[in-house]
């Protein structure tokens, strides 16, 4: 799993306006298994077990998995949601 900097946050903002993001672990995992994602972004305070699962699934699917420095609450604010978001999927 690669660690990403501030450019990943800027990319997320652009993709949010283009409506190319999938928010949440369940929906992201479902689309990852179906091969419909090009990238998965994980918050810094995401559960270690969940990070390992997404890292493994991304490796099997050939999808890039990034860990950003922001916490899940900061990611929720970034995505303009009133709740914490640990995992974001980027649609292909």
The Cα radius of gyration reads 12 Å
- Molecular shape: globular
Mean pLDDT: 88
Discrete helix count: 4
The helicity comes to: 40-55%
Element pattern in H and E: EHEHEHEHE
Q: Assign the CATH superfamily.
A: Ribosomal protein L30/S12
How does the SSE layout of this entry go?
Elements: E1 2-4, H1 6-17, E2 21-23, H2 25-33, E3 37-42, H3 48-61, E4 64-68, H4 72-78, E5 87-91
Parallel strand pairs: 1-4, 3-4
Antiparallel strand pairs: 2-5, 3-5
Summary?
This protein has 92 residues and is of the alpha/beta class.
3D architecture notes:
With 92 residues, this protein is α/β, with parallel strands linked by helices. It is 46% helix and 24% strand. A five-stranded mixed beta sheet has the order 1-4-3-5-2, with helices on both faces.
Defining key terms:
92 residues, alpha/beta, 60s Ribosomal Protein L30, Chain: A, 5-stranded mixed sheet, 4 helices, 5 strands, 46% helix
